[in-house]
Write a structure and sequence with these properties.
- With 196 residues, this protein is mainly α.
- The protein has two domains: 20-82; 93-192, minor pseudopilin epsh fold.
- The protein is built from seven helices and three strands; from the N terminus they run ααααβββααα.
- The protein has helices spanning 20-45, 59-82, 93-102, 105-118, 164-167, 171-180, 184-192, and strands spanning 122-128, 133-139, 150-157.
- Strand 1 (122-128) and strand 2 form a beta hairpin.
- Helix 1 (20-45) packs antiparallel against helix 2.
- The chain is globular and about 55 Å long.
- The protein starts with 19 loop residues before the first helix and ends with a helix.
Length: 196
Amino acid sequence: MKKYNEIKKLSFGELKGISQKTVDNHYSKLYQGYVKKWQEIQDKLLSVDKTTANATFSDLRELKAEESFTTNAIILHEAYFDILGGDGKSVGEVLEAIRRDFGSFEKWLEEFKALGLCSRGWVVLYYDFNDGKLRSGIMDTHNLGGVCGTAPILVMDMYEHAFFIDYGTDKKAYIEAFFQNLNWQAINKKASKVML
């Protein structure tokens, strides 16, 4: 069972084209910061004054909005880190599902990379429980753009902190490095837990 207040350890070593400095900053400062902030929000929710609840502004409203932000930040970062550390060679059940749902792996890859260029936050290949298909989408912030009734399968972080140290504004180069480091066995394992 997932515990949002526990920091998940990285399961990979050195990456190709993504520096250890980038990984350390991303994991230690950002991801771990979200885990700590999530717990802080939970603590504040225990004593928030519910009698002042208001749609314009209230402490309860603000805490619940930020709870969704930090919760998704944790989920998306863990999904991103979970699938790194491989050789980038696509194999397995997810590859077959991509071919089925997008027409070909190449069509999906072209779209996914293009989404990376236009995303301000996340690009997600997700399983849609509503229709039993894989779909790709963008989330410009952790809690904006997600689709209800879905589970992330393959997540690419497109916030500047994921690539700027190594590539500056060259998103394309980062996207290529990301795909060279994918662990398709981990992607298939994640998918096997949710795909029907």
